[in-house]
Structure formats: structure tokens, C-alpha cells
Design brief:
By secondary structure, the chain is mainly alpha-helical. It is built from 12 helices and no strands.
């Protein structure tokens, strides 16, 4: 899973579960892989086989799957029902931020994106919230999410540069520009 080859990981976990169907760690690894691969309906089906109450990890995974499927209210209710100490987990913070964006609550989005951005696998989801944060002039929140990781979308990089300029962090803007120019060397949009 950590190496990023989720297809191979999924096959390995399935094989492991055939040999040891009661292995709880493999069961939870399967759920995580399904969610990471975007197989959210399948992840929910696997979680529903548990019956009863879910542990914190399973609740977070269920909430991720529900959010991805557009079932936002139920996803939010699951996350808000978690014990107070879990609200600082990056996996919970991204869900709170995404839900808050659907409810047009920029303060809650800004409060949660920085913590969520600590996890490399969540950075793209955090950056997907940059247009929303920029529309609400949450420049500090955007800058707090800066990571030395290539941007997938040019617009998110541009917003990040602009946010750094808005808070007068020229070094941050310059560092991001270097990343962007390395990734999109022929793109003329930064010159404009």
C-alpha cells in the first residue's frame, strides 16, 4: 500500500484473506485499498458485512467512501460522531473540510486543511479545496498547506503562488514557482 501500487496490494490482500479469512489487519487493509482505489461502493459493501458498530478506522473509511459517493450528510454525521480526540486526525480533518465546503463554511475549511495536508496522500484533496479557499480569501490557510510536492493541476499551483504573494511570503511564492516551472516549463500563464 505504502509503495503506491494499489492494484498489486489489492490482489495480495485478497490472496491473504483466502488463506486467513479471519485476519482483521488484512480485512482493514482491504477496506483502505478499496477506498484509495475509488471502489467506494465495494468498500461500503465490505464494511456492511461487519454489522454492529465500527471502530474509528472503519468509521473514517466509511465516511470517506460515502463522501466520494456524494452522500455527504451521512459521511459528516459519522465523522462528527467520533470521539473528540479523533478530530485532529488528518483523515478526519479532510472530511470535515470537504463537508464544510459543501455547506459554504470557509472558516471550518481553513481550520482543517492544514492538518489534512500533513499526509501526503491527502495533499491533492486539500489542494482541490484551494479554489474555494481563494474565493473566500483564506490566503493563510492555503499557504499553510504548502508541501514540496508537484501540483497535479496548474490552477491550484497558481492559487498557491498568489496566496503566498497576498501574505507577502515571496520566498514561498518563489519556491512554488520553481516547482511549477519544472513541471510546466512551456506554460505561458505565469507570465501573464
Amino acid at each position: 500500500i505504502e509503495k503506491g501500487n494499489l492494484e498489486v496490494a489489492e490482489r495480495a490482500v485478497k490472496a491473504g484473506l483466502r488463506l486467513s479469512p479471519d485476519d482483521y489487519e488484512l480485512f482493514e487493509a482491504r477496506i483502505k485499498i478499496l477506498v484509495l482505489r475509488g471502489k467506494n461502493s465495494e468498500a461500503l459493501a465490505v464494511l456492511n458485512t461487519l454489522g454492529g458498530s465500527l471502530n474509528t478506522f472503519q468509521t473514517i473509511m466509511k465516511s470517506h467512501a460515502l463522501m466520494a459517493l456524494g452522500i455527504r450528510q451521512e459521511a459528516f454525521e459519522l465523522v462528527t460522531g467520533l470521539p473528540p480526540g479523533t478530530k485532529t486526525l488528518p483523515e478526519v480533518q479532510i472530511l470535515l473540510a470537504e463537508y464544510a465546503a459543501t455547506q459554504d463554511n470557509p472558516t471550518v475549511v481553513a481550520e482543517n486543511v492544514k492538518g489534512a495536508a500533513r499526509v501526503t496522500k491527502l495533499v491533492d484533496r486539500v489542494r482541490a479545496l484551494f479554489p474555494y479557499l481563494a474565493a473566500h480569501e483564506q490566503w493563510r490557510a492555503i499557504c499553510d498547506c504548502n508541501r514540496d510536492r508537484p501540483f497535479r493541476k496548474f490552477e491550484e499551483a497558481l492559487i498557491s503562488v498568489y496566496a503566498n504573494i497576498k501574505i507577502r511570503n515571496m520566498r514561498g511564492a518563489s519556491d512554488i514557482m520553481k516547482l511549477v516551472i519544472g513541471h510546466w516549463p512551456d506554460d505561458m500563464r505565469f507570465i501573464n
